[in-house]
From TrEMBL:
Protein name: Class II glutamine amidotransferase
Domain of life, source organism: Bacteria
UniProt key word Nucleus: no
Glutamine amidotransferase type-2 domain: residues covered: 2-250
InterPro entries membership: EgtC-like, GATase_2_dom, Ntn_hydrolases_N
Pfam families the record matches: GATase_4
Record keywords: Glutamine amidotransferase
């Protein structure tokens, strides 16, 4: 399983300041989630830039430098714990995407090829790795390329997995586009007691800070109420750069 965090702010700032006091508790999770790291940011020309490495976040200077020099008003950060059978390679490292969108996943479903027909041969040919997570992204991307907005694309991709996969643990994810940051949460409660961490492990929480930033993150350090809100299951959190104000979309 992986861990992920995303944030937006009213004004561009360094990614270190964007994540602020949540950065170090999040990066501490890389002691266990040590199979790679990746970051996606919204850049000034309103495209998305992805940087990632198949190594523990603490082991390289590149992430440290990026946190201090990359300036943005929307970003996501991911640390990976590789699922069995999926090697630690650049192609399998999150986030997946290009200049139009970036996607990071916390969870798994099987078989990984359950979505291949939904994705279509053209997008499937662009897959670089073997993971179910990349195919989850490509299913979302298919919906967006066909004209859906990110909120509906995330919900419909989750519907596809639920109907086509034999098993799912969690579909928690973050999607960054030039227009916003989106979080979706869903998990099978049984997955919390079968080789996982217990109740709440797959929760996504979010909060808006006094300086106007909104942060959304998976668990691993305290997210006490009322400072943090729980994102309801099968809902999408939408965060718009420049405002930080969260919008929660249900079905």
């Amino acid at each position: 399983m992986c861990r992920l965090i995303g944030a937006v702010s009213p004004q561009p700032t360094t990614t270190r300041d964007l994540f602020a006091e949540d950065l170090q508790p999040f990066l501490a999770l890389a002691d266990e989630h040590d199979d790679g790291w990746g970051m996606a940011v919204r850049v000034p020309n309103h495209t998305v830039e992805v940087v990632k490495e198949p190594e523990r976040a603490h082991d390289g200077l590149r992430l440290r430098s990026l946190l201090d020099t990359s300036t943005t008003d929307a970003a996501l950060l991911h640390v990976r714990m590789a699922s069995p059978g999926f090697p630690v390679t650049m192609a399998n490292t999150h986030p997946f995407g290009d200049k139009s969108s970036a996607f990071a996943h916390n969870g798994d479903f099987s078989p990984a090829g359950a979505l291949d027909e939904v994705i279509g041969a053209d997008l499937l040919a662009a897959a670089e790795g073997q993971t179910d997570s990349e195919r989850y992204y490509l299913a979302v991307r298919r919906r967006m390329d066909d004209g859906l907005g990110p909120v509906k694309a995330l919900m419909q991709a989750a519907d596809d997995i639920r109907s086509l996969a034999d098993r799912l643990a969690s579909l928690n994810c973050l999607l960054l586009t030039p227009h916003g940051l989106y979080a979706y949460t869903e998990h099978d409660p049984a997955s919390e007691v079968i080789g996982r961490r217990g109740p709440g492990y797959f929760g996504l929480h979010y909060r808006t800070t006094e300086d106007g930033r909104t942060v959304v993150a998976s668990t691993g350090w305290p997210h006490p109420a009322p400072q943090w809100d729980v994102l309801p299951e099968r809902h999408v959190l939408e965060l718009k750069p420049g405002t930080g104000a969260p919008t929660v979309h249900g079905r």
